[in-house]
Amino acid sequence: MQTFASIAIILFAAVAVIASLTTLIRDKQSERGATTLIGLTALTLVVYETELLSTGPAVQLALLGISSVLGIHLLLTHREYWRKNLNPAMLLPAVLAATTFATNAIANPSLPLVELLARAAPIVFWVTIGILVSVSRISAPSLAAIGGLILGVSSLAAFLGDPWRACDQFKCGLFDSIFTGPFSSENYLAQVATIAILFVTVRGTSRQRPFVILLGATVLLAATSRTAAISLGIALVLGFALSRPARSARTHLAFWLVASGALASVLIVSNASPADYSNRGGIWRRTLATTQGNEWLGAGISRWSAWQQSGLLPPSNFPHNQLILIYFSAGVVGCAVYLIVLWRLLRTLTSNPNVALAATTMISYLLVSGITEVMWNPATIDGHCFVILAVLILNTVAPPALGEGDERKNTAPSRRRTSGRRAVRGGAK
User: What is the reported pTM?
Assistant: First the structure.
């Protein structure tokens, strides 16, 4: 069965890569540059997580250097354009990165200058990305192709080594083993597969859907990531339900979606016993215990590794909860900023009918999966930046042309205006 699954993944991945490259080659000349730059950035972040490249400050600074050069190029060549089209909401991840940087510096005033500079790198990175996704345009098919290409390359790269690991005490796959791909954890592979699937919910990606969904579903099945599968199912239900109302209603629903996700996370964490959720409950309790007395600004992310070495925190685990990570790093202030970032991004992106469904499902997935996994660490540049980058990329898809907007919003007023003119003319006669 494992051999059959491996062959199926290789075949589906090869088809996905070929189909994605074919789509990207046919991209408009005016959009090809932006598509290439954003696609390479996303792919580099995922490759970073494979550890095929060396990790650490050197690679992070290289990513920062690439994004900085790109940002300078944009500023010099598109000054008038980006001034008019800069979307402030796309810069909000940089605000959260700045918050975690500031709270870390306050909580740890004796940090070396080198570490302070490394912690400042994500701020510059997200500012550059925010500008890039504000001024760039990528077609919906190319967006889906980026997701399919990244998932396809990741799946094929898995077979450079042994992509399967043995079952453990918590779970076992359908194939008597668990497919991790080229990553250290099957959960990250499942995140990449989920984002690729959610990309094809953008309007205009119907031709890309079959091969992306087929490969994504196969990878999810082989990875046996219950968190990703459950989160994807809930996200799709919420996405289809909450993206249907008119634009004015979607802006209000954005707030309630983010608030409900945060409340669910708090309730689950506060009521979990140490053995719950594959022993995550114990990690949550130990993390919260270390932040006592630092509730407002947190303990600072730099203390995590130090307290792991001293035994205060589990030696080989991260918080396994998105809000707990933010709370540890930046306290209540950081959590508030994080939720505002999600709310504002969702409100902004759902104003575009072409990406309303994709944006709602992605934010829903981030909230639900973030209950038991860390989806993004704003204090560093690594592979987990891919999820937030995927959300920001949706801003590059153009809204419908005039007359092709939300039919629920435009049709009824048009009828009223027509009947009104006829009534006036009839009265005049």
Answer: 0.88
